[in-house]
Amino acid sequence: MARDQALRSLVADGLGAVASSVQMPQPAAVEFDVPDCLAGSGFVADLCVLGERYAADLQQVQSETALATRRAVEDEAREAARAAVKSFATAMVSVGIDVSGEISRALRRHHDSAVFETLAGIDHGVQQMLHQAQSYVVLAGGLLGQRLPASPLTEVVGAAQGAIRDYARVQPYTCDRAVISRMVGPLKLILSHLLDNAARYSPPKSFIEVSSQPGHHGVTLLIDDAGKRMSDEQLTRARQILEGHRQVDILAMDAYPKVGFPVIALLARRYGIEVALSGRPSRYGGMRASVFIPEALLTSVSAEPAEPQPSVVEAPPERLVTESGLPSRRRRAPGGRQRPAAAGRASTEPGRAEVIGAWQQSSRSSRETAAQTQEARSSDS
Predict the structure, then answer these.
(1) If we measure between CA atoms, which residue out of 121, 210, 221 comes closest to residue 171?
(2) 216 SS3 class
(3) Which of 51, 277, 314, 340 is the 20 to 30 Å CA partner of 101?
(4) What is the reported pTM?
């Protein structure tokens, strides 16, 4: 009878109090009445251990449930944020393509007009907007969608140039290899981020060099700048992102997020290319980034270079459209000075124009594809 009484007291009073206080910061202690005849007995000691284990298990269940609930709420919020970012960025890309198409047609109509320079400047701004919007589409888990024809690496690098503010600081580049159709857009976005980083973190009067190293298994593009080098901590963090060891939480981004490396990492893993940052200084003392493109993503499409024309420093930049649909912008180097030509690079002889910038989606075929896509979306909705 005494043991039964002690057991009932444990269940009703001790364990009941613990269960009732589970929502409180400090759960109640396990307390229950014990008949005098059982005081200090092994049976009561066993009941105390049982009560303590019950309280500990209940607290663990409460903690794990709270953690699971919090994670579920965060995951739901993350998915909602990702969907919102993707929807907004996709809409911006669609609008940007439409605006860029109108500007492209206006540039062809007003090639010899006084408004050409203004239109070219507006178009450059639109391409920078597209660069940002496409980056957020990728960051939110979306696809670039639009597919351009297979294009020479020369034009893809030029298109990446045209999407950054300081395009004129990127030296001209030429290569006889090309990338397959589905790689044109992703590679252009990867290169534009790398070129933008190189320009932002290097002196304003310095230049960025793009070169290539052909190999048995593919081609490696090298981007060298003369800017500030990353600290060991920054380099480690960037490499972790590029290698996929550090994920970027869309809910934990700063007010002015740095999306370059996360976007590069997502595209590189998705399309099977490798992007790396060298731990050694570039030939100019700055940073070196490399982009390895496997042979399976390369093709032999050749580009026909546009006929060079005399260039005047004060003249507005001239837009040229290449056969593959990636337009280029021609203008002399800043200050009218021409740098010596390097092996495997475009000619920079005095009096000849340099290809120093480019824009994506300026050819008639790519514009028509974008228009057809937009019309299909409108009809579906």
Answers:
(1) 210
(2) coil
(3) 314
(4) 0.68
